[in-house]
Each structure stands twice: as structure tokens, then as C-alpha cells.
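Thread amino acids onto this structure.
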């Protein structure tokens, strides 16, 4: 079998060993074999990125725009094939795999245009005759470390702005989803970038990720993943004087008020909690339901999830694919026990499922009669597991929604303009959804959370420039 190599300094290079990428829908299906580099590869990549920086920073923004546009065009043209590859390695259903690829393509197109929009300010000086300019410049070498749950979209929304604003990149994807990352690198490698501008280094998280964070040549690190890893990276970045951006976990609340449209609330809850196997940092995992609608809502959700088709990600009938890995499946199942032992009522699901092909299948689980202090409502599970918490009033619901260490996204289902408006103001989350799932976001606006969910500037949209550029203030006496 061909080994897919790393892309460093414009060349495809083998690492020390390699690993099989296995399909979680069918463990007998090997998606491909991918190289695993050692720390020497990180040194080569950071050297190359550092050497390429000055040239790339100075090139006309039109050159950067054209390259990003070309990348976006190829991604969009290959959406079906890349979507199938993504679904095969990660386990989200094909429609979601294709949707994610489209998002990645659109992100490159968006930042192609943004490359031409980088502007500054001219300010009147307090000193007569002096001119003041405030401009933005690229940071330098950016280290990019991504998780497995969005194997192409998250790399895209970090790589595209990094390159658009004139930075060079060393990219380390999550170990269990190298295929989408490699395919993206292959597309980028043919976009006409000078050698060293973009580098892909696959290998172990602690070793390769750790070496990127430690490298004196890396100026800024952007990371999406777990809180524990993110915290460690942030400390190391501070220690070595780097800019850092973290997007971490969530325990996202969805409030359902008595005046909600029941059908809307059920579909928003089921989509937010269970689609993509619940493996979204923005998934709704705490369903905070007012007493008057509680029983009807719970009955309808149970009915809906009982009919969801769980199966192979590429089977057109599947609505939910498998869990991504055996470790994640064991974690999800262990939280079913944590919930039961903590006094929650398991209304449905939470079991491993058998399908024709051996894979990491699990039935969507709903806990009811839970309280917000239970572990299942404090800790991120990152699987198809949600719990219902009762609230008697809107005020109590808001208090429960905000009572969490996280603050990524939040939602409310209501037909009241008054409550919708109030909740948008008072939610302690970075993103607030009214009558739409907590898990769906646009690609051209700011994305990010508060409290333990995020650290540093927002990602995506024009806001991305905060992280990928640094301000310069220049004074001139003509
Ligand atoms: P993870 O274990 O923290 O891994 C994330 C990335 O960090 C992977 O590429 C991993 O490499 C690497 N890594 C691991 N240890 C490292 C170290 N010591 N130094 C540097 N890098 C290291 O997270 P995950 O399990 O892939 O992703 C799930 C988590 O991501 C969830 O908590 C979820 O909420 C969060 N997430 C957040 C967002 C958001 O935008 N807020 C979006 C998606 C996911 P290996 O894969 O090789 O270990
Ligand atoms: Mg895989």
C-alpha cells in the first residue's frame, strides 16, 4: 500500500514509521497508510516556513488571493470524492462529509477575497506635521494543531487566513484523521505557493504538536481540541513568548420554553445533540426544559431518536454514523454509567450496537430527571448523549444555562420575542442560537466561545485577522 508522506519545504518526505487509518464504520476497511514523523521533521518544517516567511509576507496580496482561490476551486470541484473520504475516515454521514468539504472550499474562497481587504488606519497625530499610520502585518510562522471531528473544515479555517494575511504554516492534523488533511495538503501543494510556505507534519500529538509549540521559529499557535491539551499548549506558548489561540470544549445548553413550537424544539434538540454522532464542540448536551412542555417534549424526542437510523457513514439511509474511535466509544459508554450512578434516569439508548460491518456504533442516549450539578452535566462527553434538566421559569432556565465552566454556544426555543431578545443579551456563551440548532454556524462570521471554551481572539470571518496579524504603528515627519 502507498504511504502518504509529509509535505515539508516543497517535498513529500517519509517519516520514521507509518500507521493505518481505519474506517470507524467498518474496521476491516483501511482508508490508507500515513507516515508518522519524528521531531526532526518539525525542525525541517519550521526552518522551511521561517525561510519562506519574508518572501511570502511581501508578495502582492493578489498572488495570495489567486492561490487561495485555486485551492477553494479544487476543493469544491472534488466535493463528492473528498466528502466520501472524510466520511470514511471520521464516520460522519456522507451528506455531512460533503457539507464539510463545501464549507472548507468556501472558507478558502472567502479568505482569498480577504487577502485583498487588509486595511489600516491613518490617524491625525497630536504633533503638528507628523503622520501616524496603524497597519497590520503577518505574524510569521504559524503552528496549526487540529482535532479529529472536522478533519477538513477546521484545518481550512486556520490555514486559509494564515496564508491570506502572509504567514507561513506548519500544520499537524489529528492522528486518527490524516486522509482529509493529506488531501488538503496535496491540493495546496499544487496551488503555486513558494516552497516552505505550507508544511504538513503528521505524527504523534505530544511529540509533533509539542515540538511545534516549543519551536523558537514558530511565532503563533492556533489549536482546536480538548481543554487539557489546550491548557498545556497555552502555558508553553506563554513560556516561550508566542501568541496563542485556543478553541476547546463545550457543554452547550438548549433552553426549551413552554411557548416554544414543539416540532421546532424537537428538531433543534435532536439535530444539536445527536447529529454528527454528538461529536461537535457546539453540540447541545444540556436540554433545559420548562415544566409546562417538559413531558410532551421528552416523549417526542424519545420517539424521534428511537427512529434514527444508525449505520455505515456511506450508507445513504444512515442518519447517524459510528463514534469515531474505540477510545471515544469507551468514553461515551463510561459516561452512561456515570449518569446512572449519579442518579439520572436513562430514558433511552446508550448501548453499543451491532451492524453488518464491525464498527464503533452506539445508540443515541437521553437522560431525564437530571440536575445541573451531575457530572454528566458538568463534563463534556463528546458523543451521542444528552440530558434533560427541568426548569420552572425562564429565569431559572437562564441561570442553569449559564452555570457551567464552558461558554461556547447556547440556544433557546421560544416564540416570545421578549425572551429571545433577553437571552441573546444574557447568555454567557460566545454564540447564541434562537430556534436554530446550537451546532450550525456560518463560515463568514466570528466563531468562538467564552470561559473554558476558548482563549484568545475569535476565529473565522474578518475577525480572524486579529490572530493572524500583528499591529504596527508608524510615525512620519515628511
Ligand atoms: P485533543 O486530544 O486535544 O487533540 C487535538 C490535537 O492536539 C490533535 O491534533 C492531537 O494530536 C494534538 N495533541 C495531543 N496532545 C498534544 C500535546 N501534548 N501537544 C500538542 N498537541 C497535542 O482533542 P481531540 O480529541 O482531537 O478533539 C476533541 C476535542 O476538541 C473536544 O474536547 C472538542 O470539544 C474539541 N473541539 C473544539 C472545537 C472548538 O472550536 N471549540 C471544535 C472541535 C473540537 P493527536 O491526534 O495525534 O493526539
Ligand atoms: Mg480513521
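Threaded sequence (478 positions):
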Amino acid at each position: 500500500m502507498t504511504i502518504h508522506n509529509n509535505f515539508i519545504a516543497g517535498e513529500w518526505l517519509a517519516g520514521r514509521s507509518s500507521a493505518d487509518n481505519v474506517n470507524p464504520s467498518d474496521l476491516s476497511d483501511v482508508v490508507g497508510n500515513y507516515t508518522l514523523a519524528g521531531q526532526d521533521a518539525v525542525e525541517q518544517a519550521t526552518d522551511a516556513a521561517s525561510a519562506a516567511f519574508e518572501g511570502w509576507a511581501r508578495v502582492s496580496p493578489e498572488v495570495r488571493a489567486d492561490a487561495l482561490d485555486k485551492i477553494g476551486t479544487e476543493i469544491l470541484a472534488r466535493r463528492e470524492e473528498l466528502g466520501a473520504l472524510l466520511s470514511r475516515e471520521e464516520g460522519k454521514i456522507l451528506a455531512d462529509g460533503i457539507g464539510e468539504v463545501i464549507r472548507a472550499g468556501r472558507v478558502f474562497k472567502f479568505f482569498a477575497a480577504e487577502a485583498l481587504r487588509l486595511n489600516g488606519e491613518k490617524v491625525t497625530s497630536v504633533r503638528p506635521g507628523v503622520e501616524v499610520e496603524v497597519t497590520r502585518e503577518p505574524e510569521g510562522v504559524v503552528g496549526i494543531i487540529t482535532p479529529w471531528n472536522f478533519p477538513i473544515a477546521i484545518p481550512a479555517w486556520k490555514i486559509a487566513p494564515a496564508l491570506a494575511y502572509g504567514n507561513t504554516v506548519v500544520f499537524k492534523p489529528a492522528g486518527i484523521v490524516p486522509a482529509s488533511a493529506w488531501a488538503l495538503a496535496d491540493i495546496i501543494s499544487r496551488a503555486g505557493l513558494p516552497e516552505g510556505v505550507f508544511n504538513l507534519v503528521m505524527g504523534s500529538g505530544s511529540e509533533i504538536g509539542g515540538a511545534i509549540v516549543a519551536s523558537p521559529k514558530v511565532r503563533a499557535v492556533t489549536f482546536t481540541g480538548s481543554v487539557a491539551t489546550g491548557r498545556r499548549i497555552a502555558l508553553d506558548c506563554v513560556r516561550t513568548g508566542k501568541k496563542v489561540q485556543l478553541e476547546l470544549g463545550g457543554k452547550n445548553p438548549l433552553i426549551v420554553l413552554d411557548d416554544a413550537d414543539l416540532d421546532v424544539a424537537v428538531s433543534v434538540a435532536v439535530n444539536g445533540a445527536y447529529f454528527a454522532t454528538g461529536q461537535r464542540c457546539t453540540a447541545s448536551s444540556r436540554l433545559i426544559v420548562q415544566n409546562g412542555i417538559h413531558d410532551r417534549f421528552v416523549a417526542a424526542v424519545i420517539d424521534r431518536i428511537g427512529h434514527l437510523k444508525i449505520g455505515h457513514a456511506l450508507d445513504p439511509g444512515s442518519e447517524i454514523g459510528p463514534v469515531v474511535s474505540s477510545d471515544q466509544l469507551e468514553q461515551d459508554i463510561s459516561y452512561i454509567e456515570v449518569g446512572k450512578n449519579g442518579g439520572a434516569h436513562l430514558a433511552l439508548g446508550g448501548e453499543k450496537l451491532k451492524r453488518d460491518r464491525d464498527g464503533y456504533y452506539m445508540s443515541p442516549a437521553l437522560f431525564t430527571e437530571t440536575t445541573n450539578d451531575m457530572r454528566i452535566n458538568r463534563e463534556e462527553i463528546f458523543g451521542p448523549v444528552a440530558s434533560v434538566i427541568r426548569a420552572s421559569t425562564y429565569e431559572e432556565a437562564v441561570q442553569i444555562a449559564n452555570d457551567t465552566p464552558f461558554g461556547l454556544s447556547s440556544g433557546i426555543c421560544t416564540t416570545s420575542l421578549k425572551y429571545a431578545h433577553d437571552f441573546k443579551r444574557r447568555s454567557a456563551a460566545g454564540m447564541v442560537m434562537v430556534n436554530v440548532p446550537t451546532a450550525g454556524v456560518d463560515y463568514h462570521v466570528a466563531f468562538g466561545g467564552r470561559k473554558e471554551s476558548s482563549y484568545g481572539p475569535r476565529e473565522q470571518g474578518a475577525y480572524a485577522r486579529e490572530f493572524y496579524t500583528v499591529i504596527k504603528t508608524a510615525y512620519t515627519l515628511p
